[in-house]
Amino acid sequence: MQSLAVRECDQGDFEEVAQLGERCYLNASHNRPESMFDRKRAYQPGLFLIGELECRVVSTVMAGYEGRRGWINLLAVDPDYRRLGLGRAMMVAAHERLAALGCPKVNLQIRVWNSDAVAFYERLGYSLDLCYSMGKSIEPSTQE
Ligand SMILES: CC(C)(COP(=O)(O)OP(=O)(O)OC[C@H]1O[C@@H](n2cnc3c(N)ncnc32)[C@H](O)[C@@H]1OP(=O)(O)O)[C@@H](O)C(=O)NCCC(=O)NCCS
User: pTM of this prediction?
Assistant: First the structure.
């Protein structure tokens, strides 16, 4: 298999990224892919990464840094290419970019039903932080 090419996501990648989200169940009804894509392209776009194999988008990760912690969102690998190290490669790429910004620690949230993701992140050295994860929409039309 060709090696994964990781690069910053750009405007022309939207359709493929949205399709990958559909295949990976990331496009929940309240997570409108257009709005997520546009917001991230406008803010810290260098932390929104895609992975390509033979010019086809097979993986994504959206990282962020607010000055204290780094955050990971939308990590996804095409179901046809799982368990080949691509998820790990996307996380390494995100960690490298966050570290270059001076970020000391990375946090992430996992849906309670997603035990596969828990197992994956544990393999990468993540462990449970005993915290409540709470959220509140501050834009009336969104639940993101
Ligand atoms: C989670 C996900 C990104 C993992 O991608 P992947 O490319 O299959 O993972 P990798 O091949 O890089 O695996 C890295 C390590 O995790 C382990 N791993 C991956 N998936 C696993 C699973 N379901 N159960 C147990 N271990 C798993 C691998 O065996 C590997 O371990 P090793 O390096 O010690 O051999 C992928 O399953 C996915 O896209 N899931 C749907 C979207 C999702 O849930 N994203 C996370 C949202 S929080």
Answer: 0.95
